[in-house]
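Annex B. Sample input.
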Amino acid sequence: MARNLAASLLVIVWSAPLAATNDASAPVPSDSAHTTAAERLALLQPACGSSAQENGCSSCPPGTDFPNDQLSLKGVIYGHFLDAHSDDAAAGFFGCESHASGFGGVLLLSRQNSAWKLVSVRPASIVDDCKKLQGRDGHDVLICFGQDQHQGIGSSFLYLLDFERPWNQEEGLDIFLMVTNSAEACVPISSPQEGLVSETIERVLFSEPGRIVVEARLGSISSARFKAVASHCRAGDATPYPLGLRLATVARTYAFSFDGRRVAPLLGNPPLVRNETIAPETHALLPGLYTAPDGSFTIPVPYTFTIIRNPRSSPSSVCNASALVCLVDADAKIPAAIEISRIEAGSETACLRPEHLPGRSSHFVPGDYGYSGQLTGGPGRYEFWTGASDDYQVDQSVNRVWHGRTCYQVAANIAHKENAVANDDQIGQDLVRVAVEFRFR
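Annex B, continued. Sample output.
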């Protein structure tokens, strides 16, 4: 399958809709602004008229694909987009556009006589995760991150957005780097390389003027090697997202120049076909086996985790805090102490839909814990607790799993040093990932 996204782009941004981006997982350090309700309303009224509300519009601007749809404001970036001295705003939105038009776009507005005037409505560019750079004549351009998905195969990409250049539907976005993930869908691709690929854009750096550095992780296996391990794929078999097949990945760094008008790859980059990365061949990460400390049962555990039989020998503080068996994810990003126990339950329903999940395990880090929240759905149920020890914040997720006509409870304890409100969302994602990846079938 070729990765051709010239005009069919689903652009998904990472930051929260109405605040400046501070999400550590966002690849691009976004210049999205904090905005008040009054500021947002003032920006939306020129585009939506009386249907404008503080967070969106109940109808869409003229010229969009679905004028009777609703518009949701995603983020605002202020700058000099029309020329070096203009006072402008780029307001990204979701809705109103078809998949071919990116499921959203951006309102370009300019301030004239103290009032905002709508200049254009441009599809496909939802400008949440974007960094401002200065163009050759002093006006601002944007380097943005976006994503698309087609038939389960995801693509992530970086593109240049220059409002001085008119939008061309057939040419699409000015993409200068694209990666693909077909492993989550368990679908091999045929172009620009053959096989199953797992590729992510990890970080985009702007440390030097005129230079953009992109850190990525890439891995692949051939279609022949995929057939041998295809039974481990679980596309669509997990909530909140499919697990697919995890592949080992290696770090790759790409460097680009920006001369004020265009972005171009520098010499010495890893292989590219046009703007698309080529993943080196690595290997599939297959499940391991977890044996209970008393030897009473053995079950498979997610292939993204390494079992540490002697937790106190681990350099991870959460592992040596008194977990019976510790698992650390392959990238060492989520130090999670895992305890798995068998639960008496006569049916899948009784296992997965209990009236109440028991509280935290006594085997984990001591501290004062309080009930934090609950995420329902899928054939499992999740409960979160949070607390603090002397050195770090500790969060715990408890999940039930029905496997081989037996009910198991998976308790995951994750430690986060210097925890702050800013990374609460990431902590929650980590907890869900740890629990979900035990949803073996």
